[in-house]
Fold this protein.
Amino acid sequence: MAVAMCMAKIWRPSGGLGQAALLLLRRPGARGLARFHPSRQQQQFPSLDDKPQFPGASAEFVDKLEFIQPNVISGIPIYRVMDRQGQIINPSEDPHLPQEEVLKLYRSMTLLNTMDRILYESQRQGRISFYMTNYGEEGTHVGSAAALDHTDLVFGQYREAGVLMYRDYPLELFMAQCYGNVSDPGKGRQMPVHYGCKERHFVTISSPLATQIPQAVGAAYAAKRANANRIVICYFGEGAASEGDAHAGFNFAATLECPIIFFCRNNGYAISTPTSEQYRGDGIAARGPGYGILSIRVDGNDVFAVYNATREARRRAVAENQPFLIEAMTYRIGHHSTSDDSSAYRSVDEVNYWDKQDHPISRLRQYLLNQGWWDEEQEKTWRKQSRKKVMEAFEQAERKLKPNPNLLFSDVYQEMPTQLRRQQESLARHLQTYGEHYPLDHFDK
Amino acid sequence: MQPLGTFKIGQTQKMNLFQSITSALDNSLAKDPTAVIFGEDVAFGGVFRCTVGLRDKYGKDRVFNTPLCEQGIVGFGIGIAVTGATAIAEIQFADYIFPAFDQIVNEAAKYRYRSGDLFNCGSLTIRAPWGCVGHGALYHSQCPEAFFAHCPGIKVVIPRSPFQAKGLLLSCIEDKDPCIFFEPKILYRAAVEQVPVEPYKIPLSQAEVIQEGSDVTLVAWGTQVHVIREVASMAREKLGVSCEIIDLRTITPWDMDTVCKSVIKTGRLLISHEAPLTGGFASEISSTVQEECFLNLEAPISRVCGYDTPFPHIFEPFYIPDKWKCYDALRKMINY
């Protein structure tokens, strides 16, 4: 007794924390004991039982020396709803989306595919400076986008244009950004495919990888505080998941209890680097539990699997204020970008397999055909129609001027500082004398 | 909140620097329900006691610890700010800001510009203890303002005193652009003055002439302002020289007009900072002043700075740009 009293004096939890700790332990919650926090366990300290007392872990002692074997031969299984031929495998997993919705998914994916083909080609022809296609990953975009609320905030990496397409971002604005023309809401400041849209809650893309991950977590924290009934979804590739920012984001989301979905597109390559050189563990999904995050691996080429997982993750993230990790397995059919020729590091056969045998668009089309919601005639009409829409937007975008060069200087700060105004004036004077050496004819006056 | 020009003092309280910071943070959280404070160890009050009492007063969802990860702290803060809420991030020592450099320079600073003003993180403020402290050595003494001065899109602010700190910090928090606020740690307890209890703002990008003079312009920021103040006294006593003293306050965007106006009057400029000489912010000031005031200069512009070494431990008394070094440089300038 005397010993216990004496030791109690040496370490006392601060009054506030102690009280809160006890309340938390007694509270039956959605999370119950699953989100057990070791430091909240200790109601009496020190216990004289021969049990571990360490604040850092909640575990039993063991007297056998054994290293935990990471399981990479038989990893986390891949959830799917449809087989590769678009047949529902387990009817109880069919989300039974209405015809209109499934057609919207299909049209979004195919319109994106058409836009990709035309804009990729336009780069080859020197009309735009750069482009990145989404071939093979369209299912990850629309399946997840369809499961969100319209106001859920999206932080992407750069290969998620289908999310914007699903949210009805006009072709004119996709093109305007790629051309950097006078209609670009981004005011021509970034390379192509760095889209952003405030009304559609899609945060502007930036080139550095994984930087969006801790930002998305902060946004989710603010959404939780605002009681907005909103979640944040954060997309990234399996390569970006190696960045320190990914680790930071996962850990913050878990410790700060943020309503966020981490959506990893594992498409097999980070430019030329295959997954075998990117990680040695069981992909990205296996990292989630290390942070205390509920995680799942899904077939990213199965729109319904992506939809179901995202929908359930969203429901629980809002209800329970905790993060979810979805690793969507897929394949990058296209090159990394127009600056890449992937034949340098992978076989044409490999690419063809995915294009022909396991493509999100074909699988959904097969589902539509099986349902009697689509046929060859509609396919032909839609292909013609979507191509026409894209070509029209494209030709218009080409013809437009670029923004006024004064827009080089604005938005660095909310108010332009004196120094910068002087630099702007200096350029204006320079152009008065040397203007003929600059492409002023293509820019708005 | 009153801007300083129309300021009626109202009730003041004796506060040291860390208390004036607490007061500013208290005012912010009281006024702005979206404002949150986070970083390592802020919950119990912070390693320098800047956040004492705030968690109890405003709740654990508003004043909270994060895991030990500066890139996470800043990235997280950017995300909060993107939603329009006010994010006040603490980095435990300016020496540890570098893991967050990418988030600050590549993300925060460029958020508004790259999105065409669709998105911004203006409601982010990053605070960090800064500068020499007598025994801090390489990793508890750094002054990294020059790294950030080179980055358009952020503001960098450094106060010299408790009264200045509260007004400048409140301006940073309300500023529509992301700000970094460096707090001279050696002054946390040592600097004490009467500070208004109510909120007030001191404008950013405005240098302050804290003493007028006619022969030499002395420019510094943070702790070093007090050093050059002493140097000005020494100059008046020993040399009969009248010094004009300027506290730059905002490093970027900086108030070149006030500095140039002073140099046009005096013809001589001495700039002093603890940070290493090469590439330090004195270089930017010197370069600009010689462009704008070339014909007014009576002597080369003098920079008295730390040496181009990491910040040493036992050699600190020899490393720092103390009043003797500044006095000597001033004397040489007068006799040029």
